[in-house]
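Re: weekly structure request thread

Next one in the queue (282 aa):
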Amino acid sequence: MAEKVKIKIQPSGGSSDSLTVDDAMQQVLDFIDMLRAADLSEESEKIVWRLESAQTNSPLEVTAFATGSDPDVPVGYQARQTAERLSVAIEALAKSGPVPDWMNGTPSNVAERFFKRNMNGIGRTDITIGDDAPTTIVHSTAKIAVLSIERSRIEEQLQTVDWTRSEFGAVEGEMLSTTSLYTKPVIVIKERLSSEKINCFLSPDLAETVGPTHSWNETWDHRRVSISGELYYDSDGKLKKIDATDLREIVSNPVNLKEIRKLRLVDTDPTDDFRGRLWGDG
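Done, posted below.
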């Protein structure tokens, strides 16, 4: 009997109107991509997952079965090992565990997308291997899994990054997430100029000023911030890390065009008169 896997996708809030076609279909495709990554056999021996059934009414439910490139060669054991490898990784990430070696690189990006959909649009994803009990992903476990992936990237970066030089300064960016590493609180921002993700390690004094770790996401999520401290760059001049000593929110004040027009820019001319003289209309 061929090994089967099933993925069931339920909308957020229980309403079918909140589940988009893009989210539902991409969730299935990313799941299959993760299954392929979890298959550690040679390329010529990798499993082909074929569609057995698809229930398109909400919740969306898709069942796939495993086959090999050679139909005469059984792949049941290999498929079972592959599916269980992925299931164990998902459960571990949802409990703040490490990213397994086979998931590093591109597969971790796929996994991150997979989990993030369960935080926005998809309310619950159930993964079932054969007749086993399903592995369930909801908003809270997906959030932990995303932070686990982010933490693993930081750990890898600390081990491999080339910090050629450092300087004291400040950068602006959008706050994306928070985590901790080696007992140190870390804020991840998208830097304004490069749009790159930068890890900002908070000093003890700054962490105390910012407030309790559990409230950071609620307080600072997607806010524009200015972070000051020691900036570390690699040999290409790219910013890679910040040891932060100060964090400030950037608040944009509305501009009143009527008030600007009243400004006296030269002598006693109103703005419109000055513009007219400048353009030869006055």
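The radius of gyration is 26 Å. The CA atoms of residues 140 and 195 lie 27 Å apart.
Next request, please.
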